[in-house]
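Propose amino acids for all 319 sites.
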C-alpha cells in the first residue's frame, strides 16, 4: 500500500487503523537516531524490513466511510500519491476477477477511484464450482477443489496443516483462460516448480511457528507429494471429464534448474505415474512405465489439440 499512498486507513469491525508514513519516519528517527536513519537511507533503505511500529487504532471513520461500513464488512482508504494516480487507475481497470478465485471469505470487492467504480463478485455454486462475475455482469465458471496436507516435521507433531488446491475454467470457448491452471501464488525466482498450478500453502493451524521452516526442502517435498496425489486423484480426471481427454498433453522433459527443484519434480512425477488417472481417461491409455509430467508447465496441459490424449514414454516407445 505504501507504494500508492502515505496514509492508508483500514476499517473493519472494531478495528479502525490509520498509518502515516511521515509519522512513522519520525517514530523511527526517534528510536534509532537521525544519523543512523540517514545512513540507512543512503545505503539503500530498509531492503524489505523495518522496525516494528505501533499503528494507532483510534482513527475514527468519517461520515462517508461510516456510510460505506453500513454496507461493506471492510473499507480500505488509500489517498493516492499524485505520481501514481494514473498508474493505479489503469491497474484497477485491468483487475482480473480470477484473483478472487481461491479466497474463502471475501465474496465481493468494490474499487472506486475518482468516481470510477469496478465491482467483482464470487460465489460457490456447488461443492466444486465457483462463479466469478465482473462489473459488466459477465460470469465465468471454474472448477475448484482443495485438500488439506499434513506438513508436520515428524510423525509425533500435531497442528501443522497446510492445503493444496487447483482450479480450471469450466466454460468452453476460445481464449487462454480455457487452457490454464490458475495460480494463487505466482512463483518467481524461487526454488519451486509450480508456476502453472496453484500451490496454496497457508497454514490452517500452527501453534508453534518454530516447529517447521517453510524454506526447508522437506516442507516442499511433503507438499509436492500431496499435490501429486491431488492432481492425479481429483484435478486431472475432472479436467478430462469437463473438456475431454484430448485436453491433456504430457510434456517433454526439460532443464529443471536446481537439484532441489529436480528432486521435487521427480517425486511429483513418480507419484502421478503410480496413480490411477491415466487409465481413467476413457480407457485411452494403459498405465505407462514412465510418465513425464512437468508441473512448471501445467498451464499447457489444457492445449486443445485434436486427437492427442497424451505423449507417453513406455518401454522405449513413444505413443
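Proposal:
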Amino acid at each position: 500500500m505504501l507504494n500508492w499512498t502515505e496514509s492508508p486507513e483500514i476499517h473493519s469491525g472494531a478495528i479502525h487503523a490509520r498509518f502515516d508514513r511521515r509519522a512513522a519516519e519520525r517514530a523511527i528517527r526517534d528510536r534509532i537516531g537521525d544519523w543512523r536513519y540517514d545512513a540507512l537511507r543512503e545505503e539503500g533503505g530498509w531492503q524489505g524490513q523495518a522496525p516494528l511500529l505501533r499503528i494507532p487504532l483510534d482513527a475514527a471513520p468519517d461520515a462517508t466511510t461510516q456510510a460505506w461500513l453500513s454496507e461493506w464488512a471492510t473499507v480500505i482508504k488509500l489517498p493516492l500519491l499524485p505520481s501514481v494516480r494514473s498508474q493505479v487507475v489503469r491497474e484497477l481497470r485491468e483487475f482480473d476477477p480470477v484473483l478472487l478465485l481461491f479466497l474463502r471469505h471475501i465474496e465481493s470487492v468494490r474499487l472506486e477511484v475518482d468516481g470510477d467504480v469496478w465491482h467483482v463478485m464470487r460465489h460457490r455454486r456447488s461443492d466444486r464450482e465457483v462463479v466469478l462475475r465482473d462489473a459488466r455482469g459477465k460470469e465465468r465458471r471454474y472448477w475448484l477443489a482443495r485438500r488439506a496436507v499434513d506438513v508436520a516435521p515428524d510423525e509425533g507433531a500435531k497442528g501443522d496443516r497446510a492445503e493444496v488446491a487447483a482450479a480450471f475454467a469450466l466454460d468452453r470457448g476460445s481464449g487462454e483462460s480455457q487452457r490454464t491452471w490458475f495460480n494463487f501464488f505466482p512463483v518467481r525466482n524461487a526454488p519451486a516448480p509450480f508456476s502453472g498450478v496453484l500451490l496454496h500453502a497457508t497454514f490452517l493451524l500452527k501453534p508453534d511457528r518454530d516447529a517447521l521452516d517453510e524454506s526447508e526442502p522437506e516442507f516442499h517435498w511433503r507438499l509436492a507429494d500431496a499435490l501429486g496425489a491431488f492432481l492425479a486423484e481429483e484435478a486431472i480426471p475432472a479436467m478430462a471429464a469437463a473438456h475431454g481427454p484430448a485436453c491433456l498433453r504430457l510434456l517433454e522433459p526439460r532443464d529443471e534448474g536446481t537439484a532441489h527443484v529436480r528432486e521435487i519434480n521427480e517425486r511429483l512425477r513418480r507419484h502421478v505415474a503410480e496413480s490411477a488417472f491415466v487409465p481413467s481417461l476413457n480407457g485411452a491409455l494403459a498405465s505407462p512405465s514412465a510418465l513425464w509430467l512437468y508441473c512448471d508447465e501445467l498451464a499447457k496441459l489444457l492445449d486443445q489439440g485434436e486427437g492427442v490424449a497424451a505423449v507417453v514414454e513406455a518401454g522405449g516407445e513413444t505413443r
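The beta strands are 9-12, 15-18, 74-77, 108-113, 116-124, 129-133, 139-150, 161-169, 313-314, 317-318. The mean pLDDT is 63.
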